[in-house]
Write a structure and sequence with these properties.
The chain is mainly alpha-helical. Helices cover 79% and strands 0% of the residues. It contains 5 helices and no strands. Helix 1 runs antiparallel to helix 3 and helix 4 packs antiparallel against helix 5.
């Protein structure tokens, strides 16, 4: 699990590097630090769970959490692209709300599964 999020973080770094080559010297913190989302929300929890010897989470919880991470990462990427382009979009908060909902579902599914066991 941590490996996939690590690859996603590396993909974000590569995307930022390539995008920066064509951004005419303009940068955005949202684009530069979007790699931190999969690291903090993916690799870090996976490593903590591994270290604490917590078993695998239910499939639905893992998938919902992955969707939350993906939603926030895409929101950060789009925010960075819009910053660099000098424009904005009213749809960016939708990604954040969706990420919060997916994260809540992941937590609820995990809690429910732990109480059943």
């Amino acid at each position: 699990m941590a490996g996939r999020y690590g690859l996603a973080a590396l993909g974000c770094v590569a995307f930022n590097f390539i995008y920066a080559q064509f951004a005419h010297g303009v940068s955005s913190a949202f684009m530069t630090f979007m790699f931190a989302i999969p690291l903090v929300m993916g690799v870090l929890p996976a490593m903590v769970m591994w270290r604490a010897r917590i078993g695998r989470l239910p499939v639905a919880a893992r998938q919902a959490w992955a969707l939350a991470v993906a939603s926030l990462t895409v929101a950060s990427c789009l925010h960075g692209v819009f910053d660099i382009a000098g424009t904005a979009s009213p749809w960016l908060p939708v990604y954040v709300v969706a990420a919060a909902m997916f994260a809540a579902v992941a937590v609820a599914v995990t809690i429910r599964a732990r109480h059943r066991a």
